[in-house]
Amino acid sequence: MTIELKWGILGAGNISCQFVHDLCLNNERKDGAVRHIITSIGTSSSQKGSEFIEKCDINSKNNEGVIPAVQSYEDLFKNNDVKVVYIGTPHPMHKSQVEHALNSGKHVLCEKPFTVNKKDAEYLVNLARSKKLFLMEAVWTRFFPAIEFLKKLLFETRKLGTIHRLFADFSYDAELAKLPPTSRLRDINLAGGTLLDIGIYSLTYGRILLDNKLGEESSKFQVKSFLTLDPTDKVDYNSSVIMKYANGSQGILTASNYTDGPSPFARLECSNGYAELFAQNPACPEKVKVVFKDGSEPIVYENNTGYNGFIYEANAVAHDISAGRTENAIMPLAETLLVMSTMDGVRQENGFVYPHDY
């Protein structure tokens, strides 16, 4: 049976364009049992919406015969042809937009970070549950085939043995001096800095690869951290977090806007060998190489599908909504709250406060 899911895309920026690319490619290829139909683009101006449709090449051929409406945010929320809203706007806008979508009876997939802090995240989780609507933070990394492959080696077949240590880094040279102070990376009022933008991915690898449990069931861990706050912008551009689990395994989880990161961007060390992860963008792992201490043939997994990688979470959302589920098993709301709480703790440890925290 083919599942059809009608999407409203809120925000006409780069991340939303990458997301709809995957939906349209899936439709064009007739991949799998899901067809994603983009029915509305919610933007601040009709011109921006029209340019988005053209730039992202959304057409009747790859969108199941539909040309999406260009609408204001308010009109998108009222649109009866929108079943689920994808929110790809700047961090501080998420809370009010998710709230508005839920109050309009829409299911929601919201980009990371879900909110600026755990307090706001809890409010939205409780709202979604009260309305029995689907809600998920778009942590696309968790849904990649490469991650599924590695997790099976770690937690099902246990071919790598005991997990000892993880190094994971997400860094790139953002050329901060060339950006205006109003840039989303620099502006504290836009929840700028490294931790919420890319450090969240390093933390996510610490959660994915060091623990096979989620949310309230997760293994106990401690966190020690350092953030380097820019004296002018007052936001963090260097983030270093050490995560130690009760079983002794450790994650050294870093992020920076000052310099390009290494390749492989992550290395997981275990009793029987190690695994390395490769990608152009550490948020979307493309290749895993596993090397064994006993000299066995290394295992290499590589994903060359042509998708950006958003299709995996989008398909998961479609299956969940079709089945009447209001949460996803791979990225449940309790896991979102756990990671938001961890980032709150890192900021508190380093005296880093956003205006949105008050």
UniProtKB/TrEMBL annotation:
SUPFAM superfamilies: Glyceraldehyde-3-phosphate dehydrogenase-like, C-terminal domain, NAD(P)-binding Rossmann-fold domains. One of its GO terms (molecular function) is nucleotide binding. Residues 6-136 form the Gfo/Idh/MocA-like oxidoreductase N-terminal domain. InterPro entries: Gfo/Idh/MocA-like_OxRdtase_N, Gfo/Idh/MocA_domain, GFO_IDH_MocA-like_dom, NAD(P)-bd_dom_sf. Signal peptide: none annotated. It catalyses: D-xylose + NADP(+) = D-xylono-1,5-lactone + NADPH + H(+). Keywords: Oxidoreductase. This is D-xylose 1-dehydrogenase (NADP(+), D-xylono-1,5-lactone-forming). It comes from Pichia sorbitophila (strain ATCC MYA-4447 / BCRC 22081 / CBS 7064 / NBRC 10061 / NRRL Y-12695) (Hybrid yeast).
